[in-house]
Amino acid sequence: MFIKAALLLVALSVVLASPHGPYNPYPSQPYAFKYGVQDSYSGQNHGRKEYSDGHVVKGTYSVDLPGGTRQRVDYQADKYNGYQARVSYTGVGY
Predict the structure, then answer these.
(1) Alpha-carbon distance values, 88 to 7, 73, 85 (Å)
(2) Which helix (H) or strand (E) segment is 13 a member of?
(3) Which of 10, 11, 46, 57 is 20–30 Å from 28 (CA)?
(4) Which residues pair with residue 59 across a beta bridge?
(5) Are 93 and 65 in contact (CB under 8 A)?
(6) pLDDT at 8 over 70
(7) Rounded to an integer, what distance in angstroms lies between the CA atom of residue 60 and that of residue 76?
(8) Are 69 and 92 spatial neighbours (Cβ–Cβ below 8 Å)?
(9) Can you name the residues that pair with 75 across neighbouring β-strands?
(10) In terms of DSSP bridges, do strands 44-52 and 31-39 run parallel, antiparallel, or are they unpaired?
(11) 11 membership: H or E segment, kind and range
């Protein structure tokens, strides 16, 4: 009888100690940022914008590639759908 009670207590403690989902002590907060670099001497031209409502992150970044093509990536990410990106190119390459 004692062994059954001990096993029951062990099983109960395992069930109560198991996580019921991801624990995050710091809940997501809304934010926004952007930056851009445009340097005619080195030829660098790129930038990024991103914002979040605390649940979904949306943004875009772009860069001028060698040969005159500009690459742009628009993206969205959340915990249900993951990272989703749409890549586009403008300009004429080599």
Answers:
(1) 60, 6, 10
(2) helix 2-17
(3) 46
(4) 50, 75
(5) yes
(6) no
(7) 9
(8) yes
(9) 59, 85
(10) antiparallel
(11) helix 2-17
**Starting at the edge strand that comes first in sequence, how are the strands of the sheet with 70-78 ordered?**
31-39, 44-52, 57-64, 70-78, 82-90
- Residue 6 φ/ψ, nearest 5 degrees: -65, -45
CA distance 51 to 28: 12
> Greater confidence, 27 or 89?
89
Three-state DSSP class for residue 70: strand
Name the token pair of 30.
């809304």
Which structure tokens are listed for 72? 């742009």
Tokens of 85: 């990106």
C-alpha gyration radius of the chain: 25
Which residues, at least 6 apart from 89, have a Cβ–Cβ distance to it below 8 Å?
A: 69, 70, 71, 72
SS3 66: coil
